[in-house]
Amino acid sequence: MNDKKFAVLIDSDNISAKYISYILAEMTKYGVITYKRIYGDWTSSQMGKWKQEILENSIAPIQQFSNTVGKNATDSALIIDAMDLLYTDNVDGFCIVSSDSDFTKLASRLRESGKEVIGMGEDKTPKSFRAACTVFTNLEILLDQDDESVSGVTVGREVIEQDIASIILENDDMNKATGLGEIGNRLVKKYSDFDVRSYGYSSLSKFLEEMDNFELKKSNNVVTVRIKDNRTRKQELDDYAIKLVRNSGKNGLELAALGNGMHRKYGDFKVKDYGYSTFSKFVQSISQLEVRENKTNNKVVFIRQG
Questions:
Q1: How far apart, in Å, are the Cα atoms of 114 and each of 118, 181, 232, 240?
Q2: pTM value > 0.90
Q3: Domains and CATH numbers, the chain
């Protein structure tokens, strides 16, 4: 991946010069930067902080006079340059640095042409632009990645844990081990702005090591991830659920009541610890139980007959 060539195109109108060293350092993860261009009105006094940075980092400034209200000139120039570079086919991907949704269509168009698009912008960046990029990184994270109070987390940790468990269970069904790299790639495909630094971790492996439900194993420089073996506890939970339903009699036990009973007995019980996204799916995994809907559309659990 390190031999991929990228064009870094920066919209200076809404990106601060303080981020530039972090932007360029972050791009070393993806490949080699062959074009570095920044767009703005360099006759404006507001561009003073950028002028020193573009000299020190050898970034080509592209002049756009503010002849109209707003920043349409800057946006148009960046888009035209990006399309010119696309058609010359001299790069493998683009890094578009902006917090502006106006570049959403550009990012989509570049990806349609098979190019990788790395988006970077502040936390205010609209979701439309984030989703259009292959990967999107919050610049505040790059600036404050050592700060435990990093903001910008867009997906809850519990949701990420459930996604990881689903990936592992899916591979288990195919008798396939789950690599750490595959988990990272699939999370980024689902959430283009997923970044473990948003949660206060420096690497995906550290992120997973702090989760109670997963084990990491390294063999010949390959790291695989699996769900911890909870089979003994699962059987105990299954037996108790069956007992509660059986004691409820022939009319069965409403799913919600069964859940309450399970939590009263096992205060730390969480279905996600066993690879299930909902309590209903957990109950359906118990072969002796079945879930049906009654006349009022409530879910009721019965002992399976036959």
A1: 13, 21, 48, 53
A2: no
A3: 5-143 (3.40.50.1010), 157-227 (3.30.420.610), 231-303 (3.30.420.610)
